[in-house]
Each structure stands twice: as C-alpha cells, then as structure tokens.
Amino acid sequence: MKTVLHWLLPLLMGLGIPCAHAETVTLTLANKLMATAEFHEGEPDKPAVILLHGFLQTHQFPTIKRLADSLAGEGYTVLAPTLSLGVTYRNQSLPCEAIHTHTVAAGAAEIRAWVAWLKARKVKAIILGGHSLGNIYLLDYLGSQPDRLVRKFIGISIVEGSLKAGEQARPGLVGKLRDKVRGGGREIIEGQFSFCQKLRATPDSLLSYLEWGPDMILTAIDRIRVPITMIMGSRDDRLGEDWLPRLKKTRAKVIVIDGANHFLDGQYEFDLLDHFLAELKGI
Amino acid sequence: MKPLSIGRLALLYLALSGLLVLAMGLYFWREIEQTSRQLQARETQVARQELAEGLQAARQRIQAIGESLAKWDETKQQLNFPEYYTLWRDHRVRDTGLVPASVVAVALYGQEGDILLGSNSANPMPARLPGNPPMLILKQEGGLAYLFYFIPVHADPAGAIKMGYLGLKSDLRMAMAQARAYHYADLSTLQVVIPPNSVVQADQALEYLRAGIQANPELQAFQGLLRDSMTRLAIVLLAALLLATWLLDRLVVGPLRRLSAEIDALKDPGIDLTAHRLEKLPLPILELENVRRSFNDYQSRLADLHQNLEKTSREFFDQARRDALTGAFNRRAFDEDWREAPQDRRLDNLALILFDCDHFKAINDTYGHHVGDAVIQAIVHCLQQALRADDRLYRIGGDEFATIIADTDARHAQAVAERCLAQVMAHDFRQYGMSEPVTISIGVSMAGHGDAQDARLTLLELHKRADLAMYAAKRPGGQKIMFYTPAIGGAEALVANRPVNAVFQAIQDPEMIEIAYQAVVRLPLMQKEYSEALTRIRFEGQLIFPGDIFPIIQGRNLDAEFDLAIIRAIRRDMDSGKLPPGEGVSINLSASGIVNARVMEAMVALLEAEQGRKIVVEITETALITQMETATANILRLRQAGALVALDDFGSGYSSLRYLASMPVDLVKFDISMVRLLESGEARQRLMIEEIARMVITAGYELVAEGIETRELLEKVIQLGFSHAQGYYFGKPGEPMTGGR
Q1: Which of B92, B157, B161 sits opposite A98 (nearest CB)?
Q2: Contacts with B575 (C-beta within 8 Å, 6 or more apart), sequence order
Q3: Residues with Cβ < 8 Å from A51, sequence gap 6 or more?
Q4: B contacts of A91 (beta carbons < 8 Å)
Q5: Cα–chain center distance at B378
Q6: Which residues pair with B275 in a beta bridge?
Q7: Per-residue pLDDT of chain A (283 residues; tens, 9 = 90+)
Q8: Nearest CB to B77 within list A34, A86, A186
Q9: Sign of the dihedral defined by the CA atoms of residues B291, B294, B300, B304, in that order
Q10: Cα(B202)–Cα(B135) distance, rounded to whole angstroms?
Q11: In chain B, which residue's Cα lies nearest the Cα of A85?
C-alpha cells in the first residue's frame, strides 16, 4: 500500500486529477470577519479531519495541503481552514512585519466555529490535526470544552514556542505584556516569537502567544482528554534538544519519523500520511 | 556688342565660379539644415511616442500596483480595523516593497468615498473620491503632475463584497521615468498644460503633456562635423579660386594683356618693330607660346619687310631725284629741296652756287650729243670731287648745275667755288676727242652776310642773284667766279637780264602776260575760225617776245609754270571780253605741260567753263615728250573735254611723222619753214612737201599752214588741200584780220 501511494498520488496530483471534490467554504465569524477553508467531503462513515496550518500560514501551506488532499483521497472528509488572524477572507500568509492583532484564543474560537460547521454537516467524528505552532490553537480549543465529536488530536511537528532569549526571560516578557494589556496599551510593539525576529503586534496579541511556552504546551497535552498522537521528525531543527524526550513523557503518543525535518516533506510526507492514516483507523 | 577683355572675362568666370561655389555651399547648407530639421522632427515624433509609451507604462504600473494593494490582505485588514491605519499607510505599505517611490501617497476610502484618515504630508490625498472608481486621472498640484488611481477594495476574491476604496497618488514624471528609458524625450522638461484645479482622464493625458528633446550628442556631432566640413570645403574652394585667379592672371590674362598691348602699340606708325618683341621668355601655356612665337616671327618678318620697303622707297625716291646721265640730283630734287624751305624764310649763312658750262651748245653741235654727254658727266664728277660729301649737286638744266652750302660764309663759298673750278680746269677733256678746253662759269649768291636787307632775302631772290652772278661770269674776259653784288644787279645787269626777270615775274604775276591773238582761217573760204594765242610779256613798258621768253623757260624748266600762267592770262582775256564769246582760241602747251597734272587740271577746267567756245590745244616739241603714255592719255582726256588737238611745228624736227602716227591729234600744223618751201624751195622740196601734205590729209587729219604771207602761197596751200591757214597775209598777231573775209 505504501509503495503504491508513493507512485500513484504524485501522479494523480501532477495530472491535476482531483482525488476528491474540494471546495472553498466560508464562515462568518463572531467579529463579522469572513474565514475561509478548503473542504473535502469524504465518505460518511469515515471521520472528518480538521487540518490547521502553522503560525501565520494558510491552508495552502504545502504540508497541510498535501496531507489534506491525501486524506481526502482516502475518503476522509477534510476541512483545512485558514485562520483569519484579523483579516477577512484571508488567503495570504501574514508577514511578521504585518500588524498583528490576533490572539491564540481568537484562533481557538475559529476552530470551535469550524467544528460547529462540520458538526452541522452531520459528521460522525472529528479528528483535529495541526502543524507546528498551529497545534497551540488546537490545544487551546481542546483545553476548553471541546465538542464531543472531537475524538482525537494528531499533532505534527509540534514546537515548544521557545524564546531565543531563553526560557528564563519569558516570565519577565509576559509580565510586562500583561501590564501593558492591563493598562489598556494598544501600541504596536515588536517582539521575538517563533521564527519572527520582530513580530509587530499588539501587546495582547504577542502576550497570547508568549504565554504558550514549552511547559504550558506539555501541561496542556497532559490535561486534554482526547487521545493524542504527536508525529515528529527526528531531524526537526526547530525543536529544542530536550523537547522530544519531554514530549514523550506526556500522555501523548509520539511517533518520530527518522530523518524527517520540521515540514516532513519529500519522501517523508508519505510516512506522515501512513502514520496519520494509521492513527485514523483506530477511530 | 562691345567685346570684353580677357581680364574681365576671367574675372566674370571667376565671379561666376565663386557664385556657383557659394550657391552649392548654400544648397548643401540648406540640405543639412533641412535634414537636421527632419531629424529633429523625427526625434520629436519618437520623443512623443516615448512619452505616450511612458505614460501608458506608468498608467499600467500604477494600475497594477493598485490592484495588488487592493487584493492585499493587510489592506482589507485596515478597512476592517483601521486602528493602525497610519502605521499601515506610512510604513507597512512602504516596507512591503509593493509601492515604488513614484507613488507618493496611498490612502483608503470607506464605502461612502470618504478618506479613512487625512494626512498632513506634502502629498495629501483628496478627502473624497473625485469620482466613481475605478478611475485613473491626471491632476496638477503645486506645479507637479500626478496620476491618481482609485480602485475598489473587495473582501472576497470574487469581488462581490466591497469594503471600500484604495487611492494612489503617483508623481507622473517619476513614474514615467521608472516605466521606461527615454532616449529622445527630455523628462526633466516635462510639463502638463492643464488648467489649475481640473483633472484629465489619464487615457487622454498625452495631449496635455509637453516635453523637450534630449540633446543628441551624435546628431550634434554629426551636424558639427558637416558644418566644419562645409566651412573647410568653402575655405579650400576659396583658396583654390584665389589660386586659380592668380594662375589665370599669371599664365593667361597677363600674357594676353601684354600681347594685346604690344599689338595695339603697332598702331603707332613710328614704332620700332625690332624693339617690340613679345615676352622674351617662353610662356607656360602652349597655345599662348605658339601665339607669342608666331607674333614674334611675324613681327620679325614685318620688320624685315618694313626695312626692305624703306630701302626700296629710299631707292625709288633717290632714283626719282637723280639725273640719269650724271647721277647728280636733278631739277626735281632741287625744286623739292627749295620747297621744303618756306619762301619767306630768313636765310642765314647760306650760299647758292650756280655752275654753267661755257659754249656747251657749240660743243654739242660740233662733237655730237655723246661727247656733250661725256662732258656733262665729267663736269659733274669734277664738281662732286670738289664739294663736301654732304653738299648736294643738282643738274638744273642741260649744262647748268647748282649747289647749296649751309652754314658758310663768303670766304668759304669762294674756296668751294675755286676748288670746283680748279677740278674742272684740271680735267683732261681731250680724252673725249675735243681739242679746246672746257670751262665753267660760277655764280654765287650769299644770304645773311650783307646788310639788313640781305638778311630778308627770299629763296627766289637768292636764285635770281646767283643767276645774275653766273651770267656776269660768262662775260668774256671776266672772272669765272662771280659773287653777286649790287653792282652786278645794277642797270647794266638789269638790261642784260631783263627777259629773265620778266619771265620770273610773269610766272608770279600773269597780268604781265599779254596775249596776241592771230587769226586762223578756214580754207578755202578764208573765214576766221579761231585765233592762236601768242604770248608776250610786258615788262617795264616794253614787250618781250617768245624768242626771248622760251629759251629762258626751257633753260630753267619753267615750262609747266609758264603754261599755267598763259592759261590764267587767256582766261582773264575771256572774262574781260578781249577774246569775245564764241571766238575760238588755240593754246600752246609745252612738252612738260602736257604731262603735268596741274596744267591738265587747269585746261580741263577751262574747257568745262567754255564749252561753247572752240578751243584747240597745240602740242609742240613732241620730241621732248618722255612720258608718251601719260601724254597720250592726257590728250585723249582733253579731247573728251571738248578740245581739238593740233600737232604744232610739224616738220621742224620737234614734231615728226613718228609722233603723228602715235599721237591722237585732230589738226596738223605745217611748220612755217615747210610752208615757205612750197613757194621758195626747189622742185624736189616742193614735191616732197606736197606729198607729205597729201599723205597727212589722206590719213584724215586737217592741215594748217603757218606763215602765209602772200596770195600765191595761200592759193598754193588751198590747192594742196590745207583746211586752215594763218600768217601775216591775214594780219599780224594782235591786229584785226585783213587778208581774208
């Protein structure tokens, strides 16, 4: 099976032959913004999968796009939303230098809205999947009364959200940001977060992301009730040296694909698919 | 048309060449200017095209930028949450690199068209949309032109949900400069000529754009090169023209002018041909050199010819003035030399010496003409030996000679005369068969060496004095050299020489001549038909008759002058009525007169004036006529003018049968000696005369008998058939006719 997929899927995708019917769907958010997502309607007896992109990306990000198409090809209903990040009909990745006003909570709220959207389409089960920092939106959602149809969370290349200045600096930064937020500060500040050296954001926006440090992520993993599987690359250079060991100590099932990087591209995307499909079969 | 000189022609040619060069230069200059204008027009057109393309590119670019910005998520973000609009507008838009520097302002407008937030920048955007987007307009602000582009911003990719509007403001010049490169249009001079506070749709903006042309260094260099080339060419042509002028003047015009001047100089009759040689050195132009050589050759030949003519002329002139027998100057030369001096000229230091051979007639008669000629030649030889080389010796009569010695005095003249006499006396005349010596008589008259009266002597008077002195020297027993003195010119001399004086004065004054008319009667009727004019000179109350007159005239060759005097005297008589109208007259002309042009003119004039009068011209001394052809022609001329011509003294020796046969005469007058032989001659003589008379009559001539003094002789000539007669029988000359009817 694995061998067949290795050859068949690229061929089908190269020929432009859709593996399943895909459409762009929109969702009106609570703040009146319109969010978009790519929706693959699959077989009714199979669970629906929500695949969420990484930090500031869209559902067109290759790792998500390939996986969504593959899953759709396997007959799964797939919904790959693009978080609005404060932009209606957002269809472009936001640069670090853009004015960021979005928060992790707002992202989790959009996940909740999409879960509800799927639920309205009578899916029997929902599997949440995320890539990189996109996983924190899902963790945030799962940590606060997720829908009962959500049966599993499969995280891909989850990062710890570490700071270059060192984890010891996080409490200070967070403290200052909380002070700004409490003081009603709305000025745009620039701070380092994830791959952004200068993330231009409002204090509450930056604060929401900085609060998600390694410890908070690990704690969140242990708190959520749905089964959790983490698919990681052994050669993910965005991870701290002790991240995988710490991750493995949580209640999450950790699958490490040997040789894969943060994006699990190339030949490893099939390993990703195989492992993802394997995790879905248990549902 | 007056011909032009070579100098003017050359100048005209050079001027025309210069004008042609100038015209060509102007033509090429004009062509260059026209080409430059065409290139400029082409550049203007291309520059305009560049402007159009630049404007189009700027429009497309601002539209592309606008569309990119309108689709940009962060633009939509600001329309939803404009809290950080200024940050987005002033920094974020610029940071993305989506907006070039030419876009000087960006603004967002709400759905109602109002700007989200105004700006205090130097390039503000309008507070409200100027129209209904999308729209692209051109507007001028603060002297600069801007393109404004307004476009709707939609939330969804399908463009169904309009969120608001995006506005861009682009510096037109900068946008056009960024849009493309300009090789012709000069954007730094770009101007937009639209009214203030008005807008123009961008697709019509081109007609409001004005821009200069970039300097085209290559074209300017090319034009400069052409102008420099033209200038250099003009200088070269001008120099060539000047060189051609110099060469033309030196090689052609100058030589031709000198040729012309030399040829003009030949018009001067006194020019020395040998001194006028053209261009000693060869001329550089072949044809001119040929002309020069030909002219010089021609001039040389002309000079030679001139010299030969002069020599020949001198020879002819000399021959005409020389005596053929002796080689001395003749009477003509003597007269001409006299005439060259005015008659009233005061003579200073002049001596006239006359020489005359004593008893020459006797020598001639005794020893014959050949001895006479030899004597004359010897005398001339002796006299020339005695005279100086420059002194001229004239033979003015048969045995009479003269010389004129200038700048002399009596002593010197005496010495010359003595030397001449001695030379003649020393000559041995026996070699010619003579047994007695030959002597000469010498008369000398001096001028300028006497009293005041002598100083005013005329040449005629000088000649007369020398003549008197010479006659004095001929007196037996006297000195053979005589100078004129008042004693010689005294009463004795005057008596002895009265006929000479009379002749000279009568020539000067024809009033002294009296004509005695002797009747010539028609036979046998014995009616007076005309009269023969017989000449007398009344001098000091007495008459001098032809026997004394004509020897003097013939001795001094005064025949023609005396003929003229006689003609004037006869005309005077006709005018005065002494010779009544209608009465014919017979006039004697000398042998010299019949060949003298003046005498002939006078006779013809007389004939023409007296056409109703019978006029007979009697020619005598035909043996002395040397120019027979001229004489014959003149006789014919007189006959044509109405005269009858008579051969006078026929049979006397002067008029012979030979001349009768050759002369075109009407009448023949038997000499009186022959007529008298009819009465007193021997029988044989009478027979011959009678036969001659019959022969002449038979030949068609009318015969006139002279010397009829008796009735018997008259009857005899009537019997012989004579047509006319004259003589004392009919009356003496000047008296009324008595013997006839």
Answers
A1: B92
A2: none
A3: A59, A64, A67, A68, A71, A78, A79, A80, A129, A130, A131
A4: 73, 157
A5: 53
A6: none
A7: 444 444 444 444 444 444 457 899 999 999 889 999 999 999 999 999 999 999 999 999 999 999 999 999 999 999 999 999 999 999 999 999 999 999 999 999 999 999 999 999 999 999 999 999 999 999 999 999 999 999 999 999 999 877 877 888 899 999 999 999 999 999 999 988 888 888 999 999 999 999 999 999 999 999 999 999 999 999 999 888 899 999 999 999 999 999 999 999 989 999 999 999 999 987 7
A8: A86
A9: negative
A10: 9
A11: B77
Query: Are A34 and B80 within 8 A, CB to CB?
Result: no
Taking Cα atoms as reference points, which of B332, B441, B352, B439 lies closest to residue B395?
B332
Which chain B residues have a beta carbon less than 8 Å from that of A88? 76, 80, 155, 163
How many CB atoms are located within 10 Å of the residue A175 CB?
Answer: 11
> Quick one: closest CA in A to B93, which residue?
A98
State whether A94 and B73 contact (CB < 8 Å): yes
* Dist CA A120 CA A142 (whole Å): 19
Q: What is the DSSP string of B281-296?
A: SPPSSHHHHHHHHHHH
Q: Do A34 and B155 touch (CB under 8 A)?
A: yes
Domain A4-94+101-160+214-280: which CATH number of 3.40.50.1820, 3.30.70.3270, 3.40.50.11740, 3.90.1150.10: 3.40.50.1820
- Cβ of B83 and A34 within 8 Å? no
Residue B346 DSSP one-character state: P
Cβ–Cβ gap A186/B83 under 8 Å: yes
Q: How far is B177 from chain A (nearest CA, A)?
A: 30
Residue A93, judged by CB atoms within 10 A of its CB (0-12, 13-18, 19+), counts as: middle
Chain A residue with Cα closest to B160: A89
d(CA B67, CA B56): 16
Query: How close is the nearest chain B Cα to the Cα of A258, in Å?
Result: 38
Residue the block writes with tokens 């004579």 = B722
Q: What's the ipTM?
A: 0.87
> In this structure, are residues B375 and B456 in contact, taking their beta carbons and an 8 Å threshold?
no
Strand partners, A55: none
Give yes or no for a cis peptide into B524 (omega within 30° of 0).
Answer: yes
State whether A86 and B96 contact (CB < 8 Å).
no
In angstroms, how far apart are the furthest CA atoms of chain A? 59
Contact A99 B84 (CB under 8 A): yes
Give start-end residues of each CATH 3.40.50.1820 domain in chain A: 4-94+101-160+214-280
> The pTM is what?
0.52
Give A90's contacts in chain B (Cβ within 8 Å). 73, 76
Largest alpha-carbon pair distance within chain B?
Answer: 198
The whole-angstrom separation of Cα A186 and Cα A206 is 11
Interface A-B: count of C-beta contacts within 8 A: 51
The answer to whether the CB atoms of B80 and A87 lie below 8 A apart is yes
Question: Which residues of chain A lie closer than 8 angstroms to B80, CB-CB?
Answer: 32-33, 86-88
Q: Which residue has the tokens 């026997």?
A: B547
The alpha-helical segments, DSSP class H, found in B641-699 are 657-662, 672-680, 683-698
Residues of A in contact with B96 (CB under 8 A): 95, 97
Contact call for residues B610 and B636 (beta carbons, < 8 A)? no
Among B72, B73, B79, B98, pick the best mutation site for testing chain A contact (most A Cβ within 10 A): B73
Contact A67, A9 (CB under 8 A): no
Show residues of chain B in contact with A106, CB under 8 Å: none
User: B331, B397 in Cβ contact below 8 A?
Assistant: yes
Question: Is-cis flag, bond preceding B134, omega within 30?
Answer: yes
Centre a 10 Å sphere on the Cβ of residue B26 and count the other Cβ atoms it contains.
Answer: 11
Closest CA of chain B from A225, distance in Å: 36
